[in-house]
Amino acid sequence: MISLFRSAPELMVQYAHYHRDRRNILTHLLGIPLIVLSIGMLLSLVSVDIAGNSVSLAALLWVLSTLWYLTRGSLLLGVATSLVNGALIALAHTPEAATAWGLGVIFDAAWFPGLAVFVIGWIIQFVGHIFEGRKPAFVDDVVGLLVGPMFVVGEVLMMAGMLRSMHHLIEAQAGATR
Asked: Is 1 a member of any domain?
């Protein structure tokens, strides 16, 4: 089955195989939200007309990704991931994000702050994978780029004692974190 259509538990187990080191998971808790924010910042610069309304590509991407997260078979994880991503996309549309807290003034380009946050997020990600000693999941399956935000939200939910059956499935198939 194409991984794009797999269930949340299957996707989370697949992604977890690349993320068992606690330090790697911690870097993802920062790096992935920064990447989502940066993509929102960059895509908020472009709008399309939909039924007479100007809609940013960032908002459109959020709607499409929300549909995907909500159809993976875990309502709690899908709703939580969509809400977190929605908050990051909303933040990306603020004037503060457009200037990235001063970077836009320094470099005088609307796209530079988003690019800077994107690069910082990926640097943090790659540091985590140095700890892990393993390549990022998306190298083997590009769907990992969609699973990353879901994995981060899932990790937080599991730390809070939720998604217990998914947590047990991940540890049974991918191993415990170390």
From this structure: no
Q: Is residue 85 a part of any domain in this protein?
A: yes
| Residues 144, 15 contacting (CB under 8 angstroms) | yes
Q: Are 33 and 88 in contact (CB under 8 A)?
A: yes
Domain count, the chain: 1
Domain for residue 28, yes or no?
Answer: yes
Q: Are 34 and 120 a contacting pair, CB within 8 Å?
A: yes
Taking the model in full, what pTM does it have?
A: 0.89
Exposed e or buried b per residue across 65-85, where buried means at least 16 C-beta atoms within 10 angstroms of its C-beta: bbebbeebebeebbebbbebb
Look at residue 99 in the predicted model and tell me its pLDDT.
Answer: 55
pLDDT of residue 2: 54
Q: How far apart are CA 59 and CA 50, in angstroms?
A: 12
Element (H, E) at 105: helix 103-107
Q: Is residue 29 part of a domain?
A: yes
The rounded distance, in Å, linking the Cα atoms of 38 and 104 is 13
Enclosing domain of residue 79: 8-174
Structure tokens at 23: 């330090």
